[in-house]
Write a structure and sequence with these properties.
188 residues, alpha+beta, Aminopeptidase, 6 helices, 7 strands, 35% helix, 23% strand, acyltransferase activity, transferring groups other than amino-acyl groups, GNAT_dom, transferase, Acyl_CoA_acyltransferase
Amino acid sequence: MAMTQRPDSSTLWRTTPQPTGWTWAREGSGRDARAAGRLVSRNMRSYWKARDMRFSLSVFLKHWPTQHSLLWRPRHRVHGLLSWTLSGEHAHLCEFQLDEGYRGHGIGTALLSSWLLECYRQGVRTVELRVFRDNPAYHLYTRFGFWALAVDPDISGFMTMRCRLDERQKAHIERLARAAHVPVSLSA
């Protein structure tokens, strides 16, 4: 899959405003990359530990420059990460993370719907991601129309999921977006 360089915000979110409270990771900022890596490590630790795996910050940092990344920084700390790559009509969702205390409030639903609708507006027609089956995010993805495409034979419960973005799927995502009620106290 061809990777694109990190765009400026005017090219990626050209038809809609960026989601409230989410900002571009600063290009070349090791601080943003390390903060995002710490969030991934905290959130995924139990899944990796159950499979005798460990997070590698150096591998994460190696891939960071090839990804488009939005960060959510309420209270001056990174509490959310959305990171992806684009290749023609295909997007790969690399990371979608929220700190535990911010889950279950509609923030993930609001951001995922906004991102998928922006992908659709830009001509993306398939989105793939990888997730552990026992991760609650799996259920969020299935609500958005993702289905299991393949199961990793080497990592227990790790699967690739795919979603096709067409007019019908766009209407479904718009309904989910309207139903997401993020409390004002958590939106920025």
